[in-house]
Amino acid sequence: MSLEEQPSERRKQAKEGYEYVKNEVISREKRSILSDYRADDFDSLLLIASAPRGGSSLLFDILRHHERTCSLDGEHDRWYALNGCSYPRFESDAVPADFESFDRDTLLTDLLAEVGATERSGDRTHRVDNTLVRLPLQFPDRELPYEQIREKLLEGAALRPILEELGISPLQYDDYAERDAKRPFETETIEDRPFVSSHGHKRGLAADDFERTLVLKASADAYRLPWIREQLFPETDIKLVHLTRNPAASINGLYDGWRLNRGFQTHDVGDIDLEGYDGSLWCYDLPPDWVREGDLIDTCLLQWTRAHRHVLAARDAFEDVLRVRFEDVLTDTASVITEITEFANLGESALLSENVESPNKVMTTKEPRRARWRDREDLIEGTLERADETYTEVVEELGYTEESEWI
Questions:
Q1: Where are the alpha helices (DSSP H) in 64-208?
Q2: Where does residue 369 rank: exposed (0-12), middle (13-18), buried (19+ CB within 10 A)?
Q3: How far, CA to CA in Å, does 240 sit from each of 45, 82, 322, 324, 336?
Q4: Which of 297, 303, 311, 291 is nearest to 373 (CA)?
């Protein structure tokens, strides 16, 4: 459950815990960077926009291995939530392009809190610092011994036994959501989606790293692209990658994720009565015109359609836009990554090339398999057959009219 759905007292606790860790616990070097710089100090930004379950986590993980990039450890929604730039301040995940009632300096500093520079040697201190700044957002109710946790992590201890000693189940922490819980955890804040962590080839930022390209991705950004362009990074050189994936595969992945109690929950929207879902929390992005009743499969269709519709509508806000198919990322990885790195003026990277040859598994709900959506083909095809005109327009504009190409 994300911070924005918690009572104001919970958000206050999270903010206080984070400020304490940022100012008193993390390394002196990181504190210095956060006092002197913000996320918009980067010369350029590579922004990945997609629908949820569209493959953006895998693409992001590959690109963050480029040695001319800097990146967070995962999606950045938590920082929007902490700064009141999300639901329930708005009716959905959409942020109006003219929204100015936020502390821009604080948000841009917070966005920098996890950012590290990619370098083969890596830096354990950076990974420890990132773990620490996230803990108060994930468990705002807990009075955790942050200094002791930091000391143990720097000595080489694993986080899992430390958390277990503190009475925190591994299922409640995103990096260790290895199996499904019997039901969603509703007494703790799971602030990030599962399976995302800092890779071993990142170090803390230095002043000259701001000449690099910052890579950002969050599927909910599909609904706030004009605001990001006009309010958050108005002076930054932004390259936008629109990642698409066929509707059947994406909807199938969403349907799987909704039915797993792994931390894909994002919003407490009140009572939910969706056929096929027995949980009580919203999962994945919250699109405009969302509904709390009906069939789960129709909600998954809405999430795919609305996300891509908004990205398509926001293209004119950006000078440089590249559309990429996730199907091509899977079948012709090297060529697609080369196209993106040339588009972003990144050049070559030996570490990136190694990752292209052997990508990590990221944010999977089940073992990856081509055309896995055909396991529930009748359900999905029946849903698509009754889809509205907006869906048809998006499918045609994205070039997904041939079902035989849906892998």
A1: 77-82, 104-111, 124-138, 146-154, 159-165
A2: exposed
A3: 8, 25, 6, 11, 15
A4: 297
CA neighbor of 311 nearest in space, from 228, 406, 249, 385: 228
Cα 31 to chain centroid distance, Å, stands at: 24
Which residue from 151, 138, 317 is spatially nearest to 222, judged by alpha carbons?
Answer: 317
> Domain 3-405 is classified in which CATH homologous superfamily?
P-loop containing nucleotide triphosphate hydrolases (3.40.50.300)
Q: Using one digit for the tens of pLDDT, what is the confidence trace for 61-74?
A: 999 999 999 999 88
Cis peptide bond prior to 88, omega within 30° of 0: yes
Entry pTM: 0.91
Q: Which residues contact 203 (CB under 8 A, 6 or more apart)?
A: 116, 117, 119, 121, 122, 123, 126
Q: Look up residue 142 and give its amino acid.
A: R
Interstrand relation of 282-283 and 265-267 (parallel, antiparallel or unpaired):
antiparallel
Token reading at 196? 């995302």
Q: What is the pLDDT of residues 368-401, one digit of tens each?
A: 566 788 889 899 999 999 999 999 999 999 999 9
Number of neighbouring beta carbons within 10 Å of residue 62: 20
